[in-house]
Amino acid sequence: MNSILKNSGIAIIILAAIVLLISYFLKWTNYNAVQFGAFFAMVVGLIVYIIFGKKCLDENK
Fold first, then answer.
1. What span, in angstroms and rounded, lies between the C-alpha atoms of 21 and 36?
2. Backbone dihedral angles phi then psi of residue 2, each to the nearest 5 degrees
């Protein structure tokens, strides 16, 4: 369970990057909602990765 929580932040970041790539190739770059959503997902993924990464490190001590 810890590995799922620890890696969930990375998964969110990767999904956001895929959304950005798809929006680029489909020429959706003029739609700010898609761009902001992907940016918001990357920030949330980074925060989740940091929080759960620290919790997993504290449990291993």
1. 14
2. -65, -35
Q: Who contacts 19 (Cβ-Cβ below 8 Å, separation ≥6)?
A: 34, 37, 38, 41
What pLDDT, on the 0 to 100 scale, is given for residue 11?
Answer: 94
Burial class (CB within 10 angstroms; exposed 0-12, middle 13-18, buried 19+) of 28: middle
pTM of the model: 0.83
What's the average model confidence in pLDDT over 10-34?
Answer: 94
57/38 Cα distance (integer angstroms):
28
